[in-house]
Each structure stands twice: as C-alpha cells, then as structure tokens.
Amino acid sequence: MPAMPADAPSSEAAAMTESAPTLPSDPFALPVKPQDDLKQRAIKGAAAADKLALKESFTQRDRKLVNDDTALGTAIAKAYRGGGARQVEIIAADGTRITKFILPGGSAVCYRAASNNFSGGRDPFRDTGKLVVGPCS
C-alpha cells in the first residue's frame, strides 16, 4: 500500500459535502420529538410500574369492600329510622312525675312512680319507689 498524506482523506470528504446539493426541508414533516434524558425516563418508568401494580392489586373483591351494597346492608338501611329516643318529663295533675320516651318509630313508653296511697295492704317501706311502665295515655 502506498503511503498517502494525512490531509488527503479529509480534503476529499470536505469536497464531497460541499458539492452535495441540500434538499429543502419538508413543510409537511412532523417536528422531531426531543429525546428524554435519563432522569425523565426513570420517572416515566417508575410511574408506569406503579400504575401497573395498582391496576393488578385492585380487583373486583376490593371493589366489593368499598361499595358494600349487600342485601343485608340494604335491608338495614331501609329499616333504619333516623335519630334516637327522645325523653320528655311530664308532671301529672296529681303531682306525679311521668317520663315519656318517644321512640324513632313514633311509639311512646311512659315510666311513672307507683302511687303513694297505701290502701290495699301495701307496705310503705317495701313498695316505695317502684316504677310502673306502661303505654302513655
């Protein structure tokens, strides 16, 4: 092989690039998308892995626990009548105190002290303070 000067190949390449005609850019070509750096690729990869893991872990069984519309739950919700019992204190005409409990369904129960008249053989020491439970009149 004959020895060539060191600058000969570079001058040929320079001559080829200058002599090649340049084509005008295509006005209908899509713009070139910039390449993501290493950090952006790592973030996108972690997000995709997280999304896939979340999709695989969320099954129909998990959805059932979140939206519990079983027959029993529906029946309990339908039967529930809001609020608790209300308590009303009433003093009767004879001076006895009556406690009226109004339940959520609208029914009422009354608690009153037994009467203090001791006729009929009642023992005042044994029978004092008894409560009588009955319907409200």
**Numbering strands along the chain, what is their spatial order in the largest sheet?**
1-2-3-4
Low-confidence stretches: none
Instruction: Give the overall shape, derived from the CA principal axes.
Output: rod-shaped
Determine the strand fraction and express it as a percent band: 15-25%
Count the strands? Answer: 4
How far is it from the N-terminal to the C-terminal residue, by CA?
Answer: 129 Å
Biggest sheet features: 4 strands, antiparallel
List the helices and strands and how they pair.
Layout: H1 8-19, H2 38-57, H3 60-66, H4 71-79, E1 86-91, E2 97-102, E3 108-113, E4 131-134
Antiparallel strand pairs: 1-2, 2-3, 3-4
Q: What does this 3D model show about the protein?
A:
- The protein is 35% helix and 16% strand.
- Among the domains are: 38-77, no CATH class; 86-134, no CATH class.
- The mean pLDDT is 76.
- Strand 1 (86-91) and strand 2 (97-102) form a beta hairpin.
- The chain has 4 helices and 4 strands; from the N terminus they run ααααββββ.
- It is rod-shaped and about 135 Å long.
- With 137 residues, the protein is α+β, with helices and mostly antiparallel strands.
- A 4-stranded antiparallel β-sheet has the order 1-2-3-4, with no helix packed on it.
- It has helices spanning 8-19, 38-57, 60-66, 71-79, and strands at residues 86-91, 97-102, 108-113, 131-134.
